[in-house]
Design brief:
Structural class: alpha+beta
Number of strands: 32
Number of helices: 15
CATH topology of the largest domain: BirA Bifunctional Protein, domain 2
Bound molecules: adenosine-5'-triphosphate, magnesium ion
Radius of gyration: 30 Å
Length: 580
């Protein structure tokens, strides 16, 4: 069906919307693709909906091709399944909750592991039924703390979520690998520039998980990569440990009076002003006190985290390392309850003496000597040697990661970059199968606990991500795979002849199987060209003065290149370009 701009439900805007910061948000609003209804809640207008549907189609084709079966769950869900998985509580304020007229609790689904697990439990029972992959393309609801950047982070958004159900760990690995391959095909077809990064640290036994990040300066995720191909989300970076140092001949630890030195900076200045050696912040051991609460526990437990003093504790990395336990910084009342903690001067000694678990950065290995708190106000200990004077309970990934740090694969140093998460693949294991008792009856009639994977693609976010990566000063530039139309025919003039000529050209293109947007409006050519650039269809065909001599102008939106082509055979010519 030919679309005429004279009747298309579209009004482009000359000004950027006041609340927009990133290019995709500005352009999608200005070009009339989306309109804001509430913070993080958007309507899709005709052009936007076409792009969204095309992204969905790519995702569906690849999910079907990898053997996924599409189903659709409601977004309005009862509380009970989320109570079983404990996510009614765990999700906290991020869930939209509501009550029905009888007072029953409901939620708008933020993600659907529970429903998929229950569905499989309801339909399948024999080992012969497995493996199976189910997916849906569905609207999700999350009351995000900071909805931002238009449809990039919405409170209502479209996600493709799929789940694999396998009898064995090997089966799960295979389902994971097939999803990974399907995602690579999806994002390649969408012409995205993306990286696959490791997403959880194995330190606390997390299973395989990777994120697909679209590279983008405006992205919220920081990742690092090394020259040898290593790439990881900052949360998942593992710190290479240096070799241990022999203890023989290391100087003995000495406690010093270091008045008014509660911070690393004041301490280093004091030591350098009063000693014979030069110290830097990296020579100090900073002991940060936190408390953790494993799921199901009622009490918080103290935890000491030791990091080299030139680095901060990165709370996101610490949280990822402690998962599924919750982590929080200590409050004044915690210090009051544990008087052995001498704020600003905490050392490994008092932690060990009081049975507080003490985990250290992997760089703190046997034989390394540190300046650290002496558990007494205004006192520090110098040359406190790990493995001689104190013995940590283990290591933890909590220190900040910096560009220039050695790459964990031993090749070169890390550089940092930013990205937007477009997909996430995750080996869930048996968490939900355990919660809901999802078993298959084995050949020996014994139950086999099912193991699951969960895999998400941010379908509506992708529309914005593509726009973010593919635009210029004048507007959007869609890749052909998702463009709302194949060709934008611009009638550059108001005469009846030109308009008739444009209609004929458009009809020929349509007959050749191309989708066409025809600008038949009575506007000036300047306005039409500006709108064509803004709307971003990759091929623009201008029907102008040259028509009288049998000539048209073909413009490539991405390169700006213009060529003259003969009117005769236009459909074959343009098809050749669009389908190249
Ligand atoms: P993020 O870290 O960006 O908040 P997430 O880890 O919460 O994402 P998942 O639960 O893994 O996301 O969801 C799968 C995919 O859904 C993500 O990879 C992302 O592309 C998309 N997505 C998540 N939250 C939003 C949102 N608020 N708006 C749009 N898309 C989203
Ligand atoms: Mg994620």
């Amino acid at each position: 069906m030919l679309t005429r701009m004279s009747s298309l439900f579209l009004r482009t805007l000359r000004e950027d919307p006041a609340d927009a910061e990133v290019p995709s948000h500005k352009l999608l609003v200005r070009a009339g693709y989306v309109r804001r209804v509430a913070p993080g809640v958007y309507s899709w207008l005709p052009l936007g909906l076409k792009v969204l549907r095309r992204v969905e189609a790519v995702v569906r084709e690849e999910m079907d091709a990898m053997g996924g079966q599409e189903i659709l769950f409601p977004a309005l869900l009862p509380r009970e399944p989320y109570e079983v998985s404990n996510r009614w509580t765990e999700y906290g304020p991020a869930v939209f909750r509501l009550k029905d007229r009888k007072g029953g609790d409901y939620l708008l689904g933020p993600t659907h592991e529970e429903l998929f697990t229950l569905a499989v439990k309801g339909e399948y029972s024999s080992y012969k039924d497995f493996p199976v992959v189910l997916y849906q393309v569905q609207t999700k609801y999350r009351d995000e703390e900071r909805p931002r950047a238009g449809i990039l982070r919405g409170r209502e958004f479209v996600m493709k979520d799929s789940y694999s159900f396998d009898l064995t760990d090997e089966g799960l690995s295979e389902s994971y690998r097939r999803h990974r391959d399907a995602y690579i095909r999806i994002f390649d077809r969408l012409a995205l520039d993306y990286v696959i990064v490791a997403a959880t640290s194995g330190a606390m036994g997390g299973s395989a998980s990777e994120e697909f990040l679209a590279e983008c300066e405006t992205g919220e995720d920081t990742f690092v990569r090394g020259p040898g191909g290593y790439a990881a989300n900052v949360e998942a970076v593992t710190t290479p440990a240096p070799p241990p140092v022999p203890l023989d001949g290391l100087p003995a630890a000495q406690v010093h009076h270091t008045p008014d030195t509660p911070t690393i900076e004041t301490l280093v200045d004091f030591l350098n002003a009063h000693g014979t050696r030069t110290f830097t912040a990296a020579d100090t051991l900073k002991n940060v006190m936190v408390k953790i609460k494993p799921p199901g526990a009622t009490e918080w437990e103290l935890l000491g985290v030791g990091v080299p003093g030139d680095r901060e504790v990165d709370m996101k990395r610490l949280e990822a390392s402690c998962e599924p336990a919750q982590v929080a910084l200590l409050e004044e009342s915690d210090f009051a309850r544990n008087p052995f903690l001498t704020k600003g001067y905490i050392g490994p000694g008092s932690l060990a003496a009081n049975g507080v678990r003490f985990l250290v950065d992997p760089r703190i290995v046997t034989g390394t000597a540190w300046v650290t708190g002496a558990d007494k106000v205004d006192h520090h200990v110098v040359d406190l040697v790990c493995g001689r004077d104190f013995t940590p309970d283990g290591t933890i990934e909590a220190a900040e990661v910096r560009a220039g740090d050695p790459s964990p694969d031993g090749q070169g140093v890390l550089e940092a970059a930013r990205g937007i998460e477009i997909g996430h693949i995750f080996q869930l294991g048996r968490k939900y199968a355990d919660a809901f008792g999802l078993d298959a009856l084995g050949p020996d009639s014994k139950p086999i606990r099912i193991t699951m994977g969960s895999y998400g693609v941010g379908v509506s976010r992708l529309v914005a991500v593509i726009a973010e990566q593919s635009h210029d000063e004048s507007g959007l530039i869609w890749p052909r795979s998702v463009s709302p139309y194949d060709v934008h025919v611009v009638v550059a003039g108001k005469s009846a002849e030109l308009l008739a000529g444009g209609e004929e050209v458009a009809a020929e293109l349509e007959a050749a199987g191309l989708s066409v947007l025809l600008d038949d409006r009575k506007a000036s050519p300047g306005v039409k060209f500006a709108d064509a650039e803004l709307v971003g269809i990759p091929t623009i065909l201008v029907v102008g003065r040259g028509l009288a001599e049998g000539k048209l102008e073909l413009k490539d939106r991405a390169t700006g290149e213009r060529i003259e082509i003969p009117r005769d055979g236009v459909a074959a010519h343009v098809s050749g370009i669009v389908r190249a």
